[in-house]
What we know:
Mean pLDDT of chain B: 96
Order of helices and strands of chain B: EHHHEEEEHEHEHEHHHHEEH
Helix content of chain B: 25-40%
Structural class of chain A: mainly alpha
Structural class of chain B: alpha/beta
Shape of chain B: globular
Largest sheet of chain A: none
CATH topology of chain B: Protocatechuate 4,5-dioxygenase, Chain B
Distance between the termini of chain B: 17 Å
CATH class of the domain at 13-84 in chain A: Mainly Alpha
Strand content of chain B: 15-25%
CATH architecture of the domain at 13-84 in chain A: Orthogonal Bundle
Radius of gyration of chain B: 17 Å
Number of strands of chain A: 0
Largest sheet of chain B: 8 strands, mixed
Oligomer: heterodimer
Amino acid sequence: MKQDIQGTIMFDGAQAQKGLALNKMCFSFNDADNRAAFLRDEAAYCEKYGLTPAQRAAVARRNVLDMIEAGGNVYYLAKLAGIFGLNVQDIGAQQTGMSVEAFKAKLLAAGR
Amino acid sequence: MAQIVGGVGTTHVPSIGNAIAKGLQHDPYWKPFFDGFSVAHDWLAQVKPDVAVVFYNDHGLNFFLDKIPTFAVGAAAEYRNSDEGWGIPVSRPFPGDAAFSWHIIEALVADEFDVTMCQEMLVDHAFTIPLALLWPGADNRPVRTIPIAVNTVQHPLPSPARCYKFGQAVGRAIESYQQGLKVLVVGTGGLSHQLDGKRAGFINKEFDLWCLDRLVGDPAALARCSTREIIEEAGTQGVELLNWIAMRGALTGRVTKRHSNYHVPISNTASGLLVLENHVQAELRKAG
């Protein structure tokens, strides 16, 4: 599929292939013990799942756009964001370069 | 014979689970959303379905990206929810109807829809939250359930036209079951929203309202959209509309709208509710 919708990366085969390690790590966060293990030693946990350097850097910087660029799928990344106590408004604000309050105001305005 | 009494489309945003757990139904943020369900509750109390067939998409609880089925049908006596990693409460299990599931699977494969068959299947918030909205109360399990997972995550997705035809095949499968059951069909997710990328926060009220209207009287028009068009108009996760299209496909009789509600925003999402009645018996009587 053409990736020509502005501000949007389609989660196609190429993205899924690129993001497999990162998404697999995030899938493991369905288990509370794994979330705790990540928090105890983040670098070791990323190493265990074989994250690429770009994926590791994106995770270390908590940068969602970079995680998506590196093949992350947002449904899986949301499990990682949850570990840091971030919800979808927080990550929406980060990706759009807005404050969380401004992002929420934008959502409210969309209903009018 | 089993009879399809109607269909419901509803949003399945995870934070609804937290709102229910915290009893926020009358909170000003949540009230316009939850109030929309009272008509659905009255209607369900009246029609009393025995089974709910639920089209939804898994968000990385039961399926991982190593193996993604396009259409997967549950065939279990019970469906469990589990920790999804983002802090919403885990639901009690939902009863299944394995014999009915196997009938549907047999009929679908005979109808050239070669579905994945799941004797064990964890159900995520996209299944549990709509049922909690339709039948409130943590222990309220008045219906048996059949989950049908549609891939709305890993492209290539089944096209809107394919999902509509799949829904029609599920409708035929349900109606060919020899038990005198009343069946509700549910489609979950949407409406417009986008969680990822620089376009995060995208909502399209005009398109959503057009969809709610088309789903009642002209679903084929919606099914003619391409996946790309739906993503452009409804956002990357707004494509969960595929579950609603499948639900509508399963309504094989004359369809009328009982109720709809639309409220923006719930979390990052435009929330929608649509309650449709399926008038099969009346049409049969007329024909006879």
